[in-house]
Write a structure and sequence with these properties.
single chain, alpha+beta, Alpha-Beta Plaits, five-stranded antiparallel β-sheet, 3 helices, 5 strands, 38% helix, EACC1, transmembrane
């Protein structure tokens, strides 16, 4: 089936999370990346009483290699998120959270994480 990266916008307000993920999907469509919707419930150990988070799964790989495009789109999209919002990227059992880091730090984190799984 290939490798998928789940992108979850960790936000207590489901409407804001939904808008954010819809925006990300629109931006990813411009690069014709393969996507699928996923619904994620509260991560284990999370604080608060949020009932659901919105997410999108994006296929890594393909003819031209999607990682450079995905890095660019995610960096820009995360950079526009509110400082209280965190974004979780998950591939298999491996995940990272990206928050209000500088744009350069975000890019380095995302790039290292995705490239680690690119050859999987």
């Amino acid at each position: 089936m290939g490798v998928w990266v789940d992108v979850v916008l960790l936000e207590d307000d489901p409407e804001i999370a939904d808008r954010g993920i819809r925006q990300l999907r629109r931006e990813l469509r411009a690069y014709e990346l393969e996507m699928r919707a996923v619904e994620v419930t509260d991560p284990e150990g999370s604080k608060g009483d949020a009932t659901a988070f919105n997410a999108v799964a994006i296929a890594l790989g393909g003819a031209g290699g999607t990682v450079p495009y995905l890095i660019s789109v995610l960096r820009d999209w995360i950079g526009r998120r509110s400082t209280s919002q965190r974004v979780q990227l998950t591939i298999g059992a491996d995940s990272i959270e990206v928050d209000a880091a500088s744009a350069e730090e975000q890019q380095q984190l995302i790039e290292a994480f995705l490239r680690k799984h690119e050859a999987s």
